[in-house]
Description:
Blueprint: H1 4-18, E1 33-38, E2 46-49, E3 55-58, E4 62-65, H2 71-83, E5 92-98, E6 103-108, E7 114-117, H3 124-130, E8 138-146, E9 156-161, H4 162-167, E10 182-187, E11 190-195, E12 201-204, H5 211-217, E13 231-236, E14 239-243, E15 257-260
Parallel strand pairs: 6-10, 11-15
Antiparallel strand pairs: 1-2, 1-5, 3-4, 6-7, 8-9, 8-10, 11-12, 13-14, 13-15
Amino acid sequence: MKDIRHYLLMALVLLISTASYAADDYIVGQEDVLKVTVYNHPDLTATERVSGEGYITLPLIGEVPVAGLTVDQVAKKIAALLSDGYIRDPNVSVFVTEFKSKKTIIMGQVSKPGIYMLSGNTTFLELVSLAGGLTREAGDKATINRRPLPGSTSEGIISIDLKQLIELGNTSLDVPLIDGDSVYIAKAGVFYITGEIKKPDAYKHEEGLTVIKAITMAGGFTDKASSGRIRIIRKVDNREKVLEKAAMDEKVFPDDIILVPESFF
């Protein structure tokens, strides 16, 4: 059975090597700490924490509202204020030294579930990495619950197919996270296979799993197996249902028990 953490590592390496992150697009919020540098004017360099009202206080120009602006917009705003009677063509840079305004929570099948600060433009995979990676019990689905955006009354739910993202490298599913997101990694379902099979055991369930694929995962039939009399024991409404002579293309569901009997001949 493939270790999904191996694929996560591969995906992160690919992501880091190919992605370009624009720190200037980070949206500043309350409690973030900004370092403002005005080139050739060291006396105007300042490191300030964004107040609860969304302001920072700088030499010469006083209080500057910055919450809700990107880092690039903050730099341009400060430059515009300084150029208004103070400095000709000021060259201003802004760097976020502490990210405090945006938090998310990740729960479920990760090594270190909990609350994390969103540092810059944090994506889903980066958060999973911060949380120590996926456990062996992780399923193929992740869910992001997103709080209602301004002007909306309904919460958003984003579903991520981990197999597509991690194993197949579809990084378009590596969505950026925003303040207040709640991420949940579900536990994988399992199925059981026993009888005349080479590796009877419990196996991780995969979407679209069939009897023939389950048998392949379990190493194939033994020489004594009766492939035409496979039974599946399935729970339906808290009651056991037995499927006799299951076909090779029969779908297998989580918690199914596949029984491969011995041939009479």
